[in-house]
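Readers outside the structure-tokenisation community will struggle with the description of the input data as it stands. I therefore recommend that a typical entry be quoted early in the introduction. An entry of this sort, consisting of the sequence and the corresponding backbone structure tokens, reads as follows:
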Amino acid sequence: MKKRFAFILIAFISILSSCEKDPIISNDKNVGISKITYYANITLTGNTTISVVKGTAFTDPGVKAEAGGKDIPVITTGTVNTAAVGLYTLDYSATNADGFSSSATRTVVVIPSAEVAGVDLSGSYSAVSASAGNATINKLAPGVYFTTNCWNGATTIPAYFISTDGMSLIIPTQSTAFGRLETTMPGTYSPSGLIIWQLDLLDQGPLVRTRKWQKQ
């Protein structure tokens, strides 16, 4: 009987010993049994939208990625053709040691000529149509603007556009929720603050419409 009791006591002590928690080890890679993942952070040098004059050289301002305080490689895709006015996209991606990736984008707009000093079409605009609507135009770079709506009050289509002289307006071919959009010919901006442009939704037939917006 004593032998049996001794065996049970030894077994109980063994179970208690096995239930003791392993020491928690923390370092820059682990907290206990949990592995730490440092996600990639991508930082662009310069603005996310920049312009370059047609026929001049383009140099990417640069981009940097780090994870856990250490620099990691960045892959850049996309090209800029400075021989053709238009909208171009550069995509940047970086992957950390655990295979998780992050990305960032820069929009490069090739403009037809250097911007005339003092030109700025930024402001609030209202649709001149049966359907009332508002739009906000912001200047993003020399000669480059973004409007929250270029179509009409009933249908919202945001778009980038170019104006280097404050009179002629170009919406370069770009993707929208309604397909590709562009101006069929340069639009105009009058001293009274009136925008008139002929827009073409290339994948909608095509669908060509003249739209007017008045600065408030």
Residues 1-20 have pLDDT under 50 and may be disordered.
